[in-house]
Amino acid sequence: MSKRESWEFSFSYGDLAKAAEEQYTEHIERADHWDGQLAELDKQLRASGVQYRDVPMTGGTRTDVVIDVNLKERLDEARRKRAEHERRAEEYAGYVRAFQLQLESDPQGHLLLTVDDIVFGL
Fold first, then answer.
1. How confident is residue 59, by pLDDT bands cut at 50, 70 and 90?
2. What is the DSSP string of the chain?
3. Is 23 exposed, middle or buried (0-12, 13-18, 19+ CB in 10 A)?
4. Within a domain: residue 59?
5. Each residue of 71-108: b (16+ CB within 10 Å) or e?
6. What confidence tens digit (pLDDT) does each residue in 17-54 have?
7. How far apart are CA 19 and CA 61, in angstroms?
8. Is residue 122 part of a domain?
């Protein structure tokens, strides 16, 4: 066991609530960004992402439908990213609520965190 695994850090509930709120805000902003990207990509895909091509064949023609795969992949990525940031925002909203409740019940309270616990960017 390395010494790092036994390190402990003391953070006030107020500092933890503030850090969790900042992470929540960051994920909301990123989800909004991806939501905007999703809307723009959806608009592009609907406007120009589908093409109809007439292909000559014996006895006439047939119509092939071609989708812009790059736009479709970007649309899928935007959906994944938006969902990921919405999920993370909800996770941090829970941390915010928990730390604010602790802060209300013990304004001078602190929490000991290990290296593995530190996910708030403090």
1. confident
2. --GGGG-EEEEEHHHHHHHHHHHHHHHHHHHHHHHHHHHHHHHHHHHHSEEEEEEEETTEEEEEEEE-HHHHHHHHHHHHHHHHHHHHHHHHHHHHHHHHHHHHH-TT-EEEEEGGG--S--
3. buried
4. yes
5. beebbeebbebbeebbebbeebbebbeebbebbeeeee
6. 999 999 999 999 999 999 999 999 988 888 887 787 88
7. 63
8. no
115 contacts: CB under 8 Å, gap ≥ 6: 4, 5, 7
Task: Kindly report the average pLDDT of the chain as a whole number.
Answer: 90
In a domain, 95, yes or no: yes
What's the token pair of residue 39?
């809307």
Q: Can you give the residue range of the structural domain that contains 74?
A: 3-117
- In the chain, the amino acid numbered 90 is E
Q: Tell me, yes or no, whether 41 lies in a domain.
A: yes
* Number of domains, the chain: 1
